[in-house]
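Here is a typical sample entry:
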Amino acid sequence: QVRLVESGGGLVQAGGSLRLSCAAAGRRSNTYDMAWFRQAPGNEREFVAAISWTAENTDYADSVEGRFTISRDDPKNTMFLQMNSLKAEDTAVYYCAADDTYRAYLPTISDEYGYWGQGTQVTVSS
């Protein structure tokens, strides 16, 4: 079992940057695929980015490709999301997710992640 805690959200102007962190407590995070999802008011939760437990594979939603970078620091049990060139449409609650089910692919669907953080608010003003 692992407990996830996000931090780093806040208010930023369009074009600015934020770095989100996800700290994992409990079992070491280096056996988990990890991901970021987001949910804006009135919308369903959507995939943002994922990173495999080996850190060799990453995947991004088309809407953030080239602007966001996912990474992990396993000795520190922490995952990051560097968000650059932020847009108003990036405004949402961002959630960290993890799962230790072995798969031959990197999951990008929320139902495939068993552990979730409480979320951190990101607001981008235009």
Summary: Residues 73 and 79 are 6 Å apart (CA to CA). The mean pLDDT is 95.
